[in-house]
Amino acid sequence: VFIILPTTIVRPHVEVTNFTRFAVDFIYRTDVPNNLFPSMHCLISWIAYMVLRRASSVPKGIKWFQFVMAILVCISTQTIKQHYIVDFLLAVLIAEVVFYLVKKYQWTRMFRKIKFVQET
User: How far apart (Å, rounded) are the C-alpha atoms in residues 30 and 37?
Assistant: First the structure.
């Protein structure tokens, strides 16, 4: 997607007058505003939630905490102007579709055969 549909975002100028604005300015300077679609921030956060969501040995409180954190990551990418809404929506959709396909077609068996995934 990054190669076929390269995207950028125009960020507002931030005048550094306090710590919060300093932090936003730092993010803007270190995280370049291109290759936004889909949001890797949201994709990775959502995958972390999905892994815990399926784990029967993980307490519900931890699962809810990771869910809230994933949502907060997605919200923060919007409020700090790192991504467009469609960037995080596609990230969540990709994660859900890939997990569905892996489960439906049992692709983990293929990866176990080539030693990418350990037997449990």
Answer: 18
Q: Hey, what's the torsion of the CAs at 11, 13, 16, 17, to 10 degrees?
A: -110
Residue-wise pLDDT for 73-112, tens only, equals: 999 988 888 888 888 899 999 999 999 998 888 777 766 6
Angle 40-54/60-79 helices, nearest 10 degrees?
A: 170
Read off the pTM. 0.75
With helix as H, strand as E and coil as C, how does the chain read? CCCCCCCECCCCCCCCCCHHHHHHHHHHHHCCCECCCCCHHHHHHHHHHHHHHHCCCCCHHHHHHHHHHHHHHHHHHHHCCCCCHHHHHHHHHHHHHHHHHHHHHCHHHHHHHCCCCCCC
Cβ(27)–Cβ(82) under 8 Å? Answer: yes
